[in-house]
Specification:
- With 469 residues, the protein is α/β, with parallel strands linked by helices.
- The chain has helices spanning 24-34, 44-51, 60-73, 160-168, 184-195, 207-217, 232-244, 258-265, 306-322, 344-357, 372-376, 378-383, 402-415, 440-457; strands spanning 15-21, 57-58, 81-89, 93-94, 98-109, 114-122, 128-137, 174-179, 199-205, 225-228, 250-253, 279-285, 293-296, 329-333, 365-370, 396-398, 419-425, 431-432.
- It is globular.
Length: 469
């Protein structure tokens, strides 16, 4: 129900506030909408060069616009008309800041039906970012419920990861071996996750190299344990050993190549293997899709056979369960939706569906083969005469091979502006596996997913908690 407060319902001292975490997508969209393409808003290098800040800064008016959002949505609410605004800016808005925006009724003007509000924006460190006033004309009438005007919008805000981070950051941080954090993004990703209280990092790598990098970024790493190694291969070996010995409960990839880390993970005697096949899962929050989407496997198994796909699917189902989806819908993707011997993936899809039907694969609704359009669109499936409980509602995409999965996931990230996280399951501990090109935001989201899975899968953790992505 959409509601508001009319002029006579507003009292001096009435207060409202909202919280908003500033994401890279927020900054990009604001820049494109306003035309303010100052490079300090989009590049760490320019922010450091021109402002001497190691992290890019958001537009000041992006924070200011959130005052308008609060007035228009809550107090007074729909029907509010801006009349004037005075703002003073006291500090920078940095990527990842959690802003608290508040307004308090200061005065009322009966003749004009206007209300004056004190406005305040602070960050998660209680630093004042904006102060000022806003004068608005309060709504003259109450809205009548005629349904949501937003339902037909094709693009939604991607807030799933921010909401997940807010839920799990109050849990005990998970001890995490951070393997070879010798690049800016790798080190900042780990430190940001630590500052957000998601992980308790153990930095594994060459001490002098990590310290020099930290000094150049003006980051204090003294609160964190550092295990010194000579090079990236030794970092992988030592980080895996920390997990195997129980000193850490998750493993996080730094600036080394995936193959180098996974080679150590996969060793039979000294690695982290279990009876299950190890596989990677992309978790995507896509503006044009109504639910989080898991794509697997797009990073580890190049050409998985039927037996390997069983484990890959089971790993994804477990992850969905840990994120609050008790019965995810899994689409087994192929180029076509018909079973044909000319495309082996369609035969494997049919076998997986029969296995799920007979209880060999549990905890999910499985259907396939499905082409991409049938998996994401009920209309496309109906046009082709496909009656599927998964079509248009898929939570999991099991792809035919790594190439197709990797291209699909990255297309959604770069062309559809999806937010992403990445996790490897099937080993003794979850592995936070992100691309070297991934942003600090993606690394933070991956840490939050790993925390949620760790609490779900480890009954020995003090307080087992649950979330829904």
């Amino acid at each position: 129900m959409i509601t508001n407060k009319m002029f006579d319902e507003i009292n001096i001292g009435d207060h409202a506030d909202i919280k908003r975490t500033i994401t890279k997508n927020d900054i990009d969209m604001f820049g494109m909408l306003t035309g303010d393409m100052n490079p300090t808003h989009f590049s760490d290098e320019y922010a450091n060069m021109l402002l001497e800040r190691h992290k890019l800064v958001g537009h000041s008016m992006l924070a200011g616009s959130l005052i308008s959002s609060l007035l228009g949505n809550q107090l007074p609410g729909p029907g509010t008309v801006y009349q004037s605004q005075h703002l003073e800016f006291h500090g920078a808005v940095e990527l990842g800041d959690e802003l608290t925006i508040s307004v308090t009724t200061k005065d009322k003007f009966s003749k004009q039906g206007s209300v004056l509000f004190d406005c305040l924006v602070t960050n998660q460190r209680d630093e004042t970012i904006i102060t000022g006033t806003a004068k608005v004309k309060a709504p003259m009438r109450k809205p009548v419920d005629v349904g949501s005007p937003y339902q037909a919008m094709g693009i939604r805000l991607t807030e799933s990861f921010n909401q997940l981070i807010q839920k799990v950051k109050d849990w005990d941080p998970i001890p995490t071996a951070v393997c070879h954090p010798c690049s800016k993004d790798a080190l900042l990703g780990a430190i940001d996750a630590a500052k957000t209280a998601l992980i308790d990092p153990v930095l594994v790598g060459p001490r002098s190299k990590i310290q020099t990098l930290a000094d150049s970024l003006e980051v204090d790493i003294s609160p964190y344990r550092l295990v010194e190694t000579a090079h990236s291969h030794a970092s992988a070996e030592r980080a895996v050993a920390l997990c195997r010995q129980g000193e850490t409960q998750t493993l996080m990839k730094g600036s080394l190549h995936t193959d180098e880390l996974m080679h150590e993970v996969a060793k039979r005697k000294t690695g982290l293997r279990t009876g299950s096949r190890i596989s990677h899962i992309f978790i995507l929050d896509i503006p044009t899709y109504p639910r989080p989407l898991f794509i697997t496997d797009a990073a580890i198994n190049i050409f998985p056979n039927l037996e390997e796909k069983i484990d890959i699917l089971k790993n994804a189902i477990q992850l969905a369960h840990s994120l609050g989806n008790p019965e995810p819908k899994a689409a087994i993707l192929s180029a076509v939706e018909t079973v044909t011997s000319k495309i082996p993936a369609t035969i494997e899809a049919a076998a997986l569906c029969k296995m799920a039907q007979r209880g060999q694969i549990k905890g999910a609704i499985v259907d396939g083969p499905l082409a991409f359009d049938n998996a994401i669109s009920k209309e496309a499936a109906l046009i082709k005469g496909i009656n599927s409980p998964v079509a248009g509602e898929a939570d999991i995409f099991l792809v035919p091979d790594m190439e197709s999965g990797n291209m699909l996931a990255k297309q959604l990230c770069y062309l559809a502006k999806a937010d992403s996280a990445g996790l490897v399951l099937g080993a003794k501990v979850p592995i936070i596996l992100t691309s070297r090109a991934d942003s600090a935001e993606a690394r933070l989201a991956s840490c939050a997913v790993a925390v949620a899975f760790s609490y779900w899968s480890r009954p020995d953790l003090t307080h087992k908690k649950s979330v829904r992505l």
